[in-house]
Every structure is written in C-alpha cells, then in structure tokens.
Amino acid sequence: MPTREVQGVRLAYELHGSGGDPVVLVHGSLVDRHAWDLVVPGLAHSLEVLTYDRRGHGESAHLPRPHPVRDDAADLAGLLESLDLFPAHVVAHSYAGAVALRLAIDRPEMVRSLAIHEVPYLGLLATDPATASEGTELLAGAEHLRELVRSGQREQAARELVQVFSTEPGAWERLRPDVQRAFARSVTRWSEEFRDPEAYLPDETACRELLVPTLLTVGSQSPRFLYRITQDLASILRNHRVVEIPDVGHAPHLLRPHQYVGLLGTFLLERNVPVN
To answer: Residue ranges of the alpha helices (H) in 32-110?
Structure first.
C-alpha cells in the first residue's frame, strides 16, 4: 500500500485510472477509503481517481487532530500537492463535506469542483428559527453519543449513530458482524471529529465567497433533517445545484453505485470531463 507523509502524518492512498482530470473521494466518519470501492471502477474509465484513508482511519497513521476539520483539509491539500494531483474534483460524503468545503476555502487552487452528499451541519438547523428546536435536539443527541463513547460504550454509540442516519428500524441489525465491529472501533474517531465546532457549522462568510461549482446531493430515503440542512447550505453557496437522489439514503455510493456514478458523471461532463 503506497503512503505519503504529510504534515508529519503517514497517509495511505490508492490511485486508479490512467488519465483524465483528477478526482479525490473523501470518506466519512465510520469507514475508510474502501467505502468508495464500488464507484471507483466507473469513475476510473475517464478520470484519475484518488482514494485515501483520512488521518486516524484505515491504514493511515492514527494520530490525534487538535482541529479535525482544518487538520483533515490540510492533510488532503498536502497529499494532493505531494502527488501533483491538483486542481482536483472533490467528492465527499457526510462529515467529509465539511473537510471539502474547508479545503476549497483555504486552498481554492486545489479544487475544480465539489460534490457533497449530506454533510451533517446540525448547527445550521439550530441557528434557523424555523428548525431551531429540531437542531437543538439533534445537537443534544450528538453529545449523548459522545458521552457513550467517553464512558466506553462504543458499540451502543455506534448502534445509535447508525440509526440516526437511517429511516428504517433495525439498520444496525442488518449490518454484518464485521461491519458492526469496525463501526464500534471507528466511533471514537467520529467522537473526535464532532467535538469540532466546524463539523457542525460552516464558515458562512467564507462559504458565501466561494465560486467553485458545487453539487449538493441528498437521498430521498434519508432522514428529512439532512434534506433541510442541504437546503440551508445551498442558501449560503453561490454556485451550486441540489439534487435529490431517488431510492437511496445516506450512502448512495454503497447502495446505488452505478446511479451515483452516473449523477457524478453528468455533473463532471458540464466541467468538460468525459465519464464512460
């Protein structure tokens, strides 16, 4: 497995495809780069695809992040620089959407476009009078999960976290036992990420200045608070499109990979990037 040292942190990565514009796929909180395995082949026909394990995940170094969102964004910038793989299209899932936006703010020369699926900016709900009570309740729920992690109840925290992002009862029970164990291990990293205020609330002033083309997606089967967050984020960004993906929830790259690749391909074609 190739690695690069960035900011004193060893990051594991993989490159797929032999040409075309670069695209980097940034994974969410409970998983690693392999969460993208089902979409990589479809993108790699015409793009150079980078997947990597964020700090503390998978085969990358498990080192702390004093400021998770900014540290992850700086790690990604360093990796793209070291590989001479920029400007890149950045595709991000869940928490990684906050990382992608921070990268575009801090290092705009690194980013050709953004495609973000359901970044859980709960603070946007809490600061909107129309959804303040819902946002406050969700923030309290996140703190409850972090308390479970602090008290050593990692499996229970992972179980409850999975259910938050699903509209169907029994979401945890449908996971394979090995996936349950992996989520229970990774929930500590989720807890670290969501102690960061920037994981809950974007830098609105800086976001309003962004001109990078941005695709915001939300699943039709996702909890509706994620749809409301996506709409709130859209109201901040200047150059965006919102697309609701039918028949999927929080993980379209896992449940409908070909459909998701097609959607990304349409978006990228408008940036003059062919995707077969």
So the answer is: 40-44, 68-82, 96-106
Which of 40, 1, 49, 41 is CA-nearest to residue 21? Answer: 49
Res 270 pLDDT > 80: no
Closest CA to 117 of 229, 265, 237: 229
Nearest to 74 by CA among 33, 117, 110, 38: 110
pLDDT: is 269 or 225 the higher one? Answer: 225
Domain positions in the chain are: 3-122+200-269, 132-193
The pTM for the full model equals: 0.96
CATH architecture of 3-122+200-269: 3-Layer(aba) Sandwich (3.40)
Strand partners, 12: 3
- Which tokens go with 208? 């309003």
**Could you give the CA distance from residue 219 to residue 259 in angstroms, rounded to a whole number?**
12
Give the tokens for residue 211: 């001109």
Please write the tens of the pLDDT for every residue from 142-164.
Answer: 999 999 999 999 999 999 999 99
